[in-house]
């Protein structure tokens, strides 16, 4: 496949996730994390329900740029049903990828691997990692339903 066709595919997947985000909304119960990216104004509210050690439900709301929204959509799809440990590992792989580090496990990111090109635009890294940082924070807090915090990404 020609590089331009591959680039067009990547763009199409990113635009699809941004225009029709998966798991958009808010759960009625679960851990709530609010984060924002003061650099560009992206805001996310991530709600996660954990059953034992597994992400049993997840949703996000807020507003953000195409990259931020697409990344949140992709992240929710890939971590749903994963253990906290698996989700943290995926978040680390994603962070490495968007900062230009190669990782042979990138393919585990599903559609999120299409955001690898963000590494060429350092100002967009925070946009792409906002949802993933909210996920890390939710897991670090233990998934306590009482937790509701505001953090800058």
TrEMBL record:
Domain NIF system FeS cluster assembly NifU N-terminal: 10-127
Annotated signal sequence range: none
Cross-referenced NCBIfam families: SUF_scaf_2
CDD domains: IscU_like (cd06664)
Pfam families according to UniProt: NifU_N
Record's protein name: Fe-S cluster assembly sulfur transfer protein SufU
InterPro entries linked: NIF_FeS_clus_asmbl_NifU_N
